[in-house]
Design a protein that fits this description.
The protein is α/β, with parallel strands linked by helices. It contains 19 helices and 32 strands.
């Protein structure tokens, strides 16, 4: 594997310690290490103790310290950067751009906080935020933080049933929503889903605040429950809402993530540990100075949105781009136009988004001067080598694959440009991030596996600051889901990993997506990578399908860059053979797909994750299961059609 980074670190970036020393310091002396990181944020009352691990696996960070996420994200910057950009809201759906300075952001957040208080929301109350990517979503998040309310953002693409399940778990006092989202130029009404979820839920909110964008002409309000935000805001234009100081370990938010049982787990985050962890990553990992712009292309409904659209950039004093729209509208150069216009330094996106851009006309990659951009970070799913190489060459900057989970709230594996940027290895998200004592262990014995061998990626507790403190309302589930897989008390990531001779980690997919072929364990990701290396393939999903003889056999679902390649007689069979041969060539006969289906779209969640389980269920003639996060319903039909045809 060759180094992909075309720029070397500059002198100003060098840190007094190298990566190994820095990481070791965080593990051997957590009190000293995190005590120093804690200086990066404002404390109303300093912590008395850096950590309390007297009740494993629960860990308290910065015990006795009092702080507030909103104060750190907004108020703290008023002295030095009141007139500087804080929030750059861009919607290519409504063709709107609004730039808020820190002073303006302060005003809007205070107004929203006053509105919530007027509805009886106070410290510890839950507020569900079911919103599209509009500025009020960010105001409401920070408003909750300001008054000590616990926000729970539910992704705007979820349907009524999912929303109801989350409502019943969080039992919110108030819900904040909008009349509609926008996608691909079309309004996607929300309000009927909100009404339906409130009917389905046992514990519906008392009040629903609606940020009306005027997109749903048929919008009707439920009397006594629904309130128009613009009207409420007008009553609180000059509001100054005092910050509610919270003990570091009090909950700041709940973010639901899918569990193996189908009932979502409410990842509960603290206040002080989260603020410190995020602030530290801006310095050491994303390597961005106060005043420099960050652009994370995610959605506030996901953890990346919470951490790297809302909290971390603002805590750092960095303007954040808040983007509503697709990467290819009005044209595939839109992101680079934004990068140029707002002089973005650090960008964060997903491999899927890059693959979308890769299949567009290449001229869009060079239309805008993006020399201001220093790094592109990618996460959320495996980054295959061709995609990584392509974007790295196109942008001529380091493309950094990094790995983390909703549970951790910030990266677990990465390269650390702010400390010591190691040479990239394609396909590897790098090394354990400071604070994480990561091991790769044998699934059965729990013993550490030798370098080069596959095992489960685990973290030796306590988890560092900012990771989930528990599962909302269910300490037992926290212990059972994350700390009960092995005889030793270890946090399981549920991901397969391998560490090479030089210490680089590689993620091989979920432990729950494993394929067992004739007793050999294979990660779907490995086979996908092999298939992806065939030049005709744009995208692929590999699943294990039950087989009488071998237990399971791998089956591939491929989208070709140019589907017309299959038009000629016999072309499909020829392509299938070629792809199977490629896998055999790269991974050996054991990994050879049983067959390859060609589809024009793959079923994915809105966040770009392949719905392998649903594909697998269809391939085995079962019900595809929970499809609430499915992005494109046609993709499922495509899979059905392909299976039927074969
Ligand atoms: P989520 O909590 O939805 O963000 O999903 C986290 C999961 O996404 C991880 O457990 C991994 O399976 C996968 N993931 C995240 N980042 C990466 C990455 N850089 N490479 C491979 N898989 C990743």
């Amino acid at each position: 594997m060759k180094a992909a980074f075309s720029k070397t670190t500059e002198a100003e970036d060098t840190h007094a310690m190298n990566y190994e020393e820095f990481h070791r310091w965080s593990i051997d002396d957590p009190e000293g290490f995190w005590g120093e990181q804690a200086q990066l944020i404002h404390w109303n009352k300093p912590p008395q103790k850096v950590r309390d691990y007297s009740n494993p696996p629960f860990c308290k960070w910065f015990v006795g310290g009092e702080t507030n996420l909103c104060y750190n994200a907004v108020d703290r910057h008023l002295a030095d950067r009141a007139d500087q950009n804080a929030l750059i809201y861009i919607s290519t759906e409504t063709d709107e751009t609004v730039v808020y300075s820190y002073a303006e952001l302060y005003r809007e957040v205070n107004r929203f906080a006053a509105v919530l208080q007027s509805l009886g929301v106070g410290k510890g109350d839950r507020v569900i935020i079911y919103m599209p990517m509009i500025a009020e979503a960010l105001f409401s998040i920070l408003a909750c933080a300001r008054i000590g309310a616990i926000h729970s953002v539910v992704f705007g693409g979820f349907a009524a049933y999912n929303l109801a399940v989350r409502i019943d778990d969080a039992k919110p006092k108030v819900m904040v929503t909008s009349d509609a989202g926008m996608r691909g130029g079309k309004a996607v009404p929300y309000k009927h889903l909100v009404d339906e979820s409130c009917n389905l839920a046992k514990f519906p909110p008392e009040k629903v605040v609606i940020c009306n964008r005027g997109l749903d002409k048929g919008l009707t309000l439920v009397e006594g429950r629904d309130l128009d935000y613009a009207t409420l805001r007008a009553q609180h234009m000059d509001a100054e809402v005092p910050v509610v100081w919270l003990e570091s370990n009090e909950p700041s938010y709940i973010l639901y993530t899918s569990g193996t049982t189908g009932i979502p787990k409410g990842v509960q985050r603290d206040v002080g540990g989260y603020a410190v962890a995020l602030a530290s990553t801006m310095k050491h990992l994303y390597h961005i100075n106060p005043g420099e712009t960050m652009f994370a292309t995610s959605d506030i409904g996901w953890v990346v949105g919470h951490s790297y659209i809302v909290y971390a950039p603002l805590i750092n004093g960095s303007p954040t781009i808040f983007y509503e729209g697709l990467p290819i509208r009005p044209d595939p150069g839109i992101w680079w136009k934004i990068v140029n216009e707002y002089q973005v330094r650090t960008m964060f996106s997903s491999p899927t988004a890059v693959r979308v851009l890769k299949s567009q006309d290449q001229k869009y990659m060079t239309e805008h001067d993006v020399s201001c951009l220093r790094y592109l970070f990618l996460a959320g799913e495996p980054l295959d080598e061709p995609t990584s190489r392509w974007i790295s060459d196109a942008l001529k900057i380091p493309v950094i694959d990094h790995y983390w989970q909703t549970e951790t709230g910030w990266p677990m594996l990465s390269y650390l440009p702010g400390v010591d940027l190691k040479p990239n290895r394609f396909g590897s998200p790098g090394f354990p991030v400071y604070g994480y004592n990561i091991r790769v262990i044998d699934e059965g014995t729990g013993a550490e596996v030798p370098r080069g061998e596959k095992g489960v990626l685990v973290v030796e507790p306590p988890l560092p600051p900012g990771c989930l403190s528990t599962v909302w309302g269910d300490d037992k589930r926290f212990v059972q889901s994350y700390f009960s897989s092995f005889k030793d008390l270890l946090y399981t990531s549920s991901d397969w990993a391998v560490r090479d001779e030089d210490g680089y980690f590689f993620i091989l997919g979920r432990t729950d997506d494993v394929i067992n072929v004739a007793g050999h364990r294979l990660g779907t990701r490995e086979i996908e990578e092999a298939i992806q290396s065939h030049s005709a393939v744009a995208e692929v999903a590999v699943i294990g399908v039950a087989d009488k003889v071998k237990g399971q056999v791998p089956v591939g679902f491929c989208r070709l860059k140019d589907p017309s390649q299959l038009d000629a007689a016999g072309a499909t069979e020829k392509m299938e053979k070629e792809i199977i041969a490629k896998v055999q060539e790269l991974l050996g006969a054991v990994a050879k797909p049983h067959n390859i289906h060609f589809v024009s779209a793959l079923p994915k969640t809105r966040s770009g994750k392949l719905l392998r389980r649903s594909i697998q269920a269809l391939a085995e003639g079962r019900d595809p299961g929970d499809l609430s996060t499915l992005d494109d319903p046609n993709s499922l039909e495509e899979v059905r059609r392909a299976i039927g045809q074969h």
